[in-house]
C-alpha cells in the first residue's frame, strides 16, 4: 500500500500538537490486531506541519471495527470485561518496568544499552502488553448509535428526560480517570498540609507516581515538585478540599433511570461496553503518556551525546532513532520533514511510506471537508449536561490554550490531558472530535462543565470573541 492507493478515501481527522517520534508507537499499534483476534484499522496516516498534526483514520474502518466488537460481545457476554482484566495484569507489570527505566541515569548507559532500551520500549507496549486500537472506532460509532436508540426510546415511551439527557447519563463513566485520581490525591495532600504535616516525602511519592501526567504528543513536560506545590496552593486558595466521587454520582443517576425505564438489550449492551472501554481507554492514555515520557528521555540523551539537534531528532522514525545513536542519520531529510508538510502512512505496524512538501499538503487538503460560510450553529452529543454562555476561545495548539480566561467557552478539536487547566477555567467545552469515551467527555463530567462533543465543525464556524450559548442538554452550540 502507498499514498496513491488511499487517495479519494474518506477520513476522520483529529488535530493535535505532536512530534513524529512521540506518536510512533500508537500510530503503529492502530494497524495491529489486538491479540490477533480483534479488528484494527487497515492503515493510519499522520500529517505534520509546524508542530501540528492531523491524525487520519479511514471512516469505513470505524463501523467495521465497532460492529465486530458489538457482535463479539453479543456472542460472548463478558468477553471484553475478561480481556480488560487480563490486559490490566500485563499493564501493571509493564508499568513497573517503566518506573525502573524512569529512574535510570541515561547518561551512564552505553550506546548499545540505549539501542537495546529503545527496541525494548517499543516491544514492551506493542507486544508484551499490547496496545488495543479499537476504542476510538467504537466511540465514534457508538455515540451515534446509542443516541439514535435512546432518541427512539424517548419518543416511544415519552420519557420526562429528553434523548440528550438520557444519553449523557447512560454513557457516563463509572470509574475515576487517572486525572481525577491525581486531583483527589492532591486534595488529600492539601488537607494534610493544613493539618501542619511535613509533606516532603509525600510530595516526592506523588511526583513519582504521576511523573508522566503533563506529557503530550510533543514530548515530556516535567512534573516538578514546584508545580505540585502550586497546584496544592490553588486547591487551598480556592477552598477545593473535598474529593468528589463523580463515578458514584454517575452510578446513582444511571441506576435511577434503570429503575424507571426498561431499556432494550441493544441499549444495555452499548452501555456495558462503553463503561468497560472508557476505563480501558483511560489506562491506555496513561500508557501513551508513559511511552512519551521515556522516549523523550532517550531522544534528549541521544541529542546530548551525538550533538545532533533535538528538534531534528524528533522527526526520526523508531528505526532511524536507533541508527542515530551511532551518528548514522540523514540530517537533511530530518530538516526537510521539520520545515515542510510531512505525511507518514502506517500499515500492519510498520511505516510503509513517507512524503514531504506539496504532495503531502495536497493529500491533506483533499481530505478536508469544506464548509459553507455563514453557519452559526453546531450540533453534537451531550457529554456533560448544562447550559452556559460565554466568549469563544478557539484552541488548535497548546500555545493557543494560554489565551483561555475564566468564563470563556473552550472550542477545540479534541481535548487532551495537557488541556485540563484550561478546561477548569472555561464555562463550557465544545469539541470537533471525540465520542462517548473521549477525554473531553470524561473530564467535563468530573468538572461539572457543560460539554458538547463531536460537532465536527465548531473550530471552523466559531471565532475568538464570538458570544455563544452552549446548551448541552440539547447538544447545541449557537452564536448569540
Keywords:
480 residues; alpha+beta; Glucose Oxidase, domain 1; 13 strands
Model description:
The structure is a single chain. The chain is of the alpha+beta class and 480 residues long. Among the domains are: 3-130 and 294-366, no CATH class; 377-479, Phosphohistidine domain (Glucose Oxidase, domain 1, 3-Layer(bba) Sandwich). The chain is 52% helix and 14% strand. It is built from 19 helices and 13 strands. The model has no long low-confidence stretch (mean pLDDT 93).
Shape: globular
What's the gyration radius in Å?
22 Å
Q: Low-confidence segments, ≥5 residues, pLDDT <50?
A: none
Helix percentage range: 40-55%
Count all strands and give the number: 13
Side-by-side strand order of the widest sheet: 6-13-12-8-9-10-11-7
In angstroms, what separates the terminal alpha carbons?
48 Å
Summarize the main sheet: 8 strands, mixed
Structural class: alpha+beta
Sheet-strand content, in percent, reads 5-15%
User: Regarding quaternary structure, how should these chains be classified?
Assistant: single chain
Average pLDDT value?
93
Count the helices. How many? 19
